[in-house]
Amino acid sequence: MRAITILGSTGSIGTQTLEVINELKLNYEILALTANTNVEKLAAQVKEFEPQFAVLMNEEAAKELKYELSDLDTKVLVGQEGLIEVATSDEVDLVINSVVGAAGLFPTLEAIKAKKDIGLANKETLVTAGELVMAKAKEYGVRILPIDSEHNAIFQALDGENREDIEKLILTASGGPFRESTAQDLANVTVEEALNHPNWDMGGKITIDSATLMNKGLEVIEAKWLFDIDFSDIEVVVHPQSIVHSLVQFKDASILAELGLPDMKVPIQYVLTYPERTENRLERLDLAKIGSLDFEAPNTELFPCLGYAYKAGKTGGTLPAVLNAANEIAVEMFLNGDLSFIEIPQLIKKVMDQHQVVQKPGLDDILDADEWARAQSWKEGENLC
Ligand SMILES: NC(=O)C1=CN([C@@H]2O[C@H](COP(=O)(O)OP(=O)(O)OC[C@H]3O[C@@H](n4cnc5c(N)ncnc54)[C@H](OP(=O)(O)O)[C@@H]3O)[C@@H](O)[C@H]2O)C=CC1
Ligand SMILES: CC(=O)[C@@H](O)[C@H](O)COP(=O)(O)O
Ligand SMILES: [Mn+2]
């Protein structure tokens, strides 16, 4: 029996992780479940899975949860300290990080230092501090197993291959709900339209990132650090069906890909059972029924966030942390109705242009840049709207 901590268990990935463990009766003891503020959902999960620990990010919510769980033995912890305690506990074997945003960085770093393997959905960790996180993972001999569908596909395609044989990585992008829109259309899109992803049912923040193509930009940076590849060897191609989850091109012109219906339970299961594969009852891909698969170049004029991410990644230093933080605030403002869809990239560019990049940053430099970018984004965002 392996013990697992799921950070962000109430979200889209966290919930599906619990479902996979349950449906396949995988050999995991649920040690800890965590959420930000969602007392109701976390309480329901705790009642079902009876973990040793449950964590919420603020005192008030934790108090409510304690009251809800007064009949159970589950210990309720609070805040960053609580997250770190359950991510580093001696008992835990695997930490799934399915928190959204740069809030996932600290528990990832602490789990690595405690030599815990990590199933990583939280791409913002690697965007913000990829070089540092991967160096720590190497130092502590920790495996970072990618859950993000594109990176999981590449991870599978690279199994048994030599790194030196890779020519390039090709990340597929659905193109989001506005793939066929004009600049005029984009000026008037609503939050509801932007939250309507054509293929995947995901949390709000990543769904907006998909609509702006920032998700693919974050994934380019995530791929750079996970697979140690130059940005010039990472290509993005739009593939509206999201059946080919990404590809690796080798020096002999061979291309390997992982395909399947768009269902996050597949990469989640791969990580939970790695290095084994386990039979499941998920719907199978029927290629004849699908008929054809389409590919096209991304429209970086209409969706400039992808270009901003390449720029941040290639510049390096603290700029990716600034890109990420500005994006988090821009998306929050858009979801709150305080920014229009086309103002998301405008705000990110403004904040990136104002940043004095620190090269070879330590963790403190990255945290300072993140804090500065958030404050600056709120300020600039208020000027824009
Ligand atoms: N959903 C998907 O299919 C995919 C997601 N990813 C990545 O996985 C991560 C999670 O995405 P998703 O599951 O969609 O997100 P959700 O918004 O659905 O869930 C986020 C989870 O994190 C918790 N959380 C939010 N803010 C904080 C915080 N500040 N500190 C601690 N916990 C917090 C939430 O708690 P609460 O419920 O209380 O708010 C919730 O449990 C993201 O980085 C995303 O980019 C990658 C590939 C696919
Ligand atoms: C499921 C997953 O991994 C998401 O990151 C997905 O890729 C989002 O779709 P886009 O390709 O539209 O960004
Ligand atoms: Mn993805």
Short description:
The protein has 385 residues and is an alpha/beta fold.
Outline the structure in words.
The structure is a single chain. This protein has a seven-stranded parallel sheet with strand order 4-3-2-1-5-6-7, with helices on both faces. The longest helix has 22 residues. The chain is of the alpha/beta class and 385 residues long. The relative contact order is 0.11. A hairpin with a 4-residue loop joins β10 and β11. The protein has three domains: 146 residues, NAD(P)-binding Rossmann-like Domain (Rossmann fold), CATH 3.40.50.720; 135 residues, no CATH class; 70 residues, Rna Polymerase Sigma Factor, Chain: A (Orthogonal Bundle), CATH 1.10.1740. The protein binds NADPH dihydro-nicotinamide-adenine-dinucleotide phosphate, 1-deoxy-D-xylulose-5-phosphate (DXP) and manganese (II) ion (MN).
* CATH level 1 name of the largest domain: Alpha Beta
> Quick one: how many beta strands?
11
Shape: globular
Low-confidence stretches: none
Q: Which CATH architecture of the largest domain is right?
A: 3-Layer(aba) Sandwich
Any ligands, ions or cofactors bound here, and which? NADPH dihydro-nicotinamide-adenine-dinucleotide phosphate, 1-deoxy-D-xylulose-5-phosphate, manganese (II) ion
Strand order of the largest sheet: 4-3-2-1-5-6-7
Strand content of the residues, in percent? 5-15%
Supply the number of structural domains: 3
Structural category is alpha/beta
Task: Name the helix and strand elements from N-terminus to C-terminus, one letter apiece.
Answer: EHEHEHEHEHEHEHEHHHHEEEHHHHHH
What Rg is obtained from the alpha carbons, in whole angstroms? 20 Å
CATH topology (fold) name of the largest domain: Rossmann fold
Largest sheet: 7 strands, parallel
Mean pLDDT: 98
**CATH H-level superfamily of the largest domain:** NAD(P)-binding Rossmann-like Domain
Distance between the termini: 53 Å
Percent of residues in helices comes to: 40-55%
Helix segment tally: 17
